[in-house]
Design a protein that fits this description.
Blueprint: H1 20-23, H2 52-59, E1 82-85, E2 91-94, E3 98-102, E4 115-118, E5 131-136, E6 139-144, E7 151-153, E8 161-163, E9 168-171, E10 174-177, E11 180-186
Length: about 190
């Protein structure tokens, strides 16, 4: 049985300007992995197969931890982002934890920072100030503000829930203000 040739390497030469052929002189001639086979040609330097752009990026890589103390990395944390899909299919970003909905909603002194969101309703079944959405963590609740046509929370099982005037209920996703269908959706994909 033929034994595969074993290449013994010399200890690396030290010096800043040494070429690869100086470090591994036995690998600069033609080579073949199988004895008796045609030569594959001279080996190619690994550094020549890396683009100049990649070498530049590697050389300008950020300093190791502790050496770049002046740079601050920004981390996104905080509140998840939500939007409301309106009856016409458009969306409105919900900028706060309290949102007052209606055809022409009026600010509530008890919630001075509440977002006012006008719902376009050609059927005029949405009251001027119809409902209030309130978020606590991941849960949204809707409060009827004495609307004329109420709030309906449709259920996939057909057990729709009608919110009592002045009452509140948890909103899973879809709800109706009068005949206007709206849908809550998270826009940050849970991050």
């Amino acid at each position: 049985r033929d034994e595969a040739p074993v290449t013994r390497l010399r200890p690396p030469a030290f010096g800043a300007d040494r070429a690869e052929r100086d470090v591994f002189p036995e690998l600069t001639g033609e080579v073949s992995a199988i004895p008796g086979s045609p030569a594959a040609g001279a080996p190619v330097s690994a550094s020549s197969s890396v683009s100049a752009q990649e070498r530049e990026q590697q050389e300008s890589a950020p300093a190791p931890w502790g050496e770049d103390l002046e740079r601050t990395v920004v981390v996104r944390r905080g509140h998840p982002r939500w939007e409301l899909v309106l009856p016409d299919g458009s969306t409105a970003d919900l900028s706060g934890d309290v949102v007052i909905l209606g055809r022409n909603p009026v600010a509530d002194p008890a919630h001075p920072r509440a977002q006012l969101l006008a719902i376009a309703d050609p059927t005029r079944t949405v009251s001027k100030t119809h409902a209030r959405l309130e978020r606590r963590g991941e849960v949204w609740r809707i409060v009827d503000l004495g609307s004329t046509n109420g709030i309906l929370l449709p259920s996939p099982l057909g057990t729709d829930v009608e919110v009592e005037p002045g009452g509140a209920a948890e909103v899973a996703e879809r709800f109706l203000l009068g005949d206007a269908a709206l849908r809550l959706q998270r826009t940050d994909a849970g991050s």
